[in-house]
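Hey team,

Filing this mostly as a record. A colleague (T.K.) asked me to run one chain through the structure pipeline before their review meeting, and I want the input and output archived in the tracker in case anyone asks later how it was produced. No errors, nothing strange. Just documentation.

Input sequence:
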Amino acid sequence: MLPSELTPEIVLFAYGQGCFPMPDPSTGNINWYRPDPRAVIPLEGFHVGRTLKRVLSKQNFTIRTNNCFEKVMRACAAREDTWITEDFIRIYGLLNALGFAHSLEVFHNDELVGGVYGVSLGGAFFAESMFHATSNASKVALFYLVEHLKKMNFVLLECQFLTPHLASLGAIEISDHSYMSQLASALELENVAF
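Output structure:
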């Protein structure tokens, strides 16, 4: 049983056990989730549809990593219904400083218009949330995240729960057994850097 508190050590331990935290919407207490099935994006199976192809071909974006981690988290939290509390921003900020949490940012004319953030352990990246301030910028962020992870030799991209948006980009559901097997293999890769 995982404790109902957030520390960088507990969060990293939990990800290694296939769990991730979310606060209870009514109490704010931390709950730990290990869904079955689990959503993943196969790194060789990212789907680039016509609209995204057109957006990418215009090359209007600048992509950066770990340039403004907290800004990405706050942009992801800036919605009516969010689980990203100040405590999450603080703990994941510490994880970023320790080299375990990362962001990929999409800029247009030096303005942050999209991004994604998550946690990396071994060859696994656990995508937490993404946002867009202009059309398709979150899709662009996910596309470049996948490209970056492939380049850096990651083997697993986890995205918690399947949504129609993620499914349109190639995300699939796998069983807990399959996920834990893939996670174990990814965690054996010790020299993978974001």
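Quick notes for T.K.: The CA atoms of residues 58 and 92 lie 33 Å apart. The domain at 38-187 is CATH 3.40.630.70 (Aminopeptidase).
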